[in-house]
Specification:
This protein is an alpha/beta fold and 484 residues long. It has helices at 2-5, 38-49, 64-70, 97-111, 140-152, 157-166, 174-179, 212-221, 230-238, 260-273, 289-307, 314-330, 337-345, 373-392, 427-433, 438-443, 447-453, and strands spanning 6-9, 15-18, 21-24, 29-34, 53-61, 84-89, 118-123, 183-189, 252-258, 277-288, 353-362, 400-408, 420-423, 460-461, 472-480. The radius of gyration is 24 Å and the shape is globular.
Length: 484
């Protein structure tokens, strides 16, 4: 992907070519980066830039070098004697002292640049946790506690990032401002629905579209406004009322080089190569995990009706109506459900079906268990499929083989070692035979513990850190069983 997006041409007066845009390298070429995918991006960039690269610093997740080494992914590792310094931090995707150390080093490099320098910035999902530089007098632990509390109360990533960048030196365009007057070129792997530049990794090189007032609204929404540390109150009361004007970013070019949409397109091609009739629902699935699970269960129900020759009729009409209402409630941007349902109508039993989707759900924590949004989604879909089969008896769903999967493209779902999990309609009944109550695990938000214990953990997908991050991907595989 980097090699497709980035090229260097000419020796006397070298120029960077990035997706059709040209940037002259007048003097020093420097590199900084932060995020789950940045190690591989930096390795490819250094190979392309060669001796023109003066120096680089990247902040990457703790353990990623060892994980990629173990997986034999040498091409994603820096060569010996690299000019790029690697700092690992943000264990379990949470800011820590090591991530702060890397952020300070990046800040110092940016502050030392001149008008003749070019700063190449590599950004991917997870970059926010790897670039913690709270505005004094806020302490890192204070900012971290506030972020964790917001997440536990169901705040979406967009809301988290509004708060993070308001309280940060480098987020919300801060890095770009510190690098001025150097030319700044950012190559971005998007992990946010709609690819908003000021939200991905909290927008360190993008003009912020949010003000301190937006931050206050988020804090008020989750009842935190009157329970803030003194240091946070001090910063909020002295922050500018309006964000920095876009014209102050004329020295910056932000370029998206990868996203969930591209990942789904690749997955669709692969599924078709395996003989599936493949459809992409959306790259912008969002909302509370229970509502999204219901959406997928209803979609599976509709496909099974179609494969049984019941695409037309009162039952299918009812399911289609339920789906339209759910999508309206979830407010999934850009989803033309009517068009998608028309494509579903054309599916026949002769080929297995693969439905793909991506995005990022939210979980409102009610228990103290261990899990992640993908594992919780898979467990809730498993429960939903079980209930549908139990209430409908010999339903068309019972005449189909069904597998549902949800996983994080970064290889880490929540503070667990798993990327995600699989389920099928038989999961709940099989779990009961092992003495495992799915509903009890869900009440405690304990999906990882469930999947670890159930059938020896065989329904977990454990990849290790993958070196990329473009949100989550869900896959539904459905095959009509041959009638005896």
């Amino acid at each position: 992907m980097m090699k497709r997006a980035l090229k260097l041409q000419g020796d006397g007066c070298p120029q960077l070519l990035v997706k059709g845009q040209t940037f002259p390298v007048k003097r020093g070429l420097y590199l900084v980066g932060f995020g789950k995918a940045v190690l591989g991006m930096a390795a490819a960039a250094e190979e392309i830039l060669g001796d023109h690269l003066v120096r680089g610093i990247i902040n990457v997740p703790l353990g990623i070098q060892e994980s990629l080494q173990r997986a034999g992914m040498q091409e994603m590792l820096l060569k010996p004697h690299s000019k790029i310094q690697v700092i690992e931090g943000a264990k379990n995707n949470l800011p820590d002292a090591e991530a702060l150390k890397g952020a300070v080093a990046i800040q110092q490099l940016a502050e030392g640049l001149t008008a003749d320098d070019l700063l190449l910035v590599l950004i991917s999902g997870g970059g926010s946790a790897l670039l913690p530089a709270p505005i004094p007098p806020i302490l890192l632990k204070e900012k971290e506690k506030l972020t964790k509390t917001l997440a536990s109360r169901g705040a979406a990533i967009q809301e988290l990032n509004i708060v993070r960048k308001t309280l940060s030196m480098l987020k919300g365009g801060g890095l770009a401002q510190l690098a001025y007057p150097a030319r700044v070129v950012s190559l971005i792997l998007s992990d946010v629905i709609g690819d908003p530049l000021d939200i991905i990794a909290s927008g360190p090189t993008a003009a912020s579209s949010h003000s301190v007032q937006d931050c206050l609204q988020v804090l008020a929404k989750y009842n935190l406004l009157h329970n803030l540390p003194k240091s946070v109150e001090t910063v909020l009361s002295s922050s500018p009322a309006k964000p920095t004007a876009p014209e102050n970013y004329s020295h910056v070019s932000n370029i998206i080089i990868g996203s969930n949409t591209l990942a789904l397109d690749e997955a669709k091609c692969h599924a078709e190569g395996l003989g599936y009739a493949a459809l992409v629902l959306s790259a912008a699935i969002r909302g509370e995990v229970g509502c999204v699970a219901t959406l997928y269960c209803q979609l599976i129900r509709l496909v099974c009706l179609g494969l049984a020759g019941l695409a037309e009729g009162p039952l299918s009409d009812e399911v289609r109506g339920d789906l339209l209402q759910l999508v309206a409630e979830l407010e999934i941007p850009g989803l033309d459900l009517a068009k998608f349902l028309q494509a579903v109508r054309g599916l026949g039993p002769e080929r297995p079906v693969c439905i793909l989707a991506g995005g990022e759900t939210t979980v409102q924590l009610q228990g103290s268990g261990k899990g992640g949004r993908n594992q919780e989604l898979a467990l809730r879909v498993g429960l939903g499929l079980h209930r549908a089969q139990a209430t409908e008896g010999s339903s068309p769903q019972g005449r189909c083989e069904i597998i549902f999967f949800s996983g994080g493209t970064d290889g880490q779902d929540g503070p667990t070692e798993a990327a995600g999990a699989f389920c099928s309609p038989g999961l709940v009944a099989e779990a009961l035979q092992e003495g495992l109550d799915v509903e009890a695990f869900l009440r405690n938000n304990d999906s990882y513990t469930f999947f670890s214990q159930f059938q020896g953990g065989h329904h977990l997908l454990v990849t290790g850190l993958t070196g990329t991050n473009v949100m989550d991907i869900q896959a539904i595989l459905i095959r009509a069983m041959e009638r005896s």
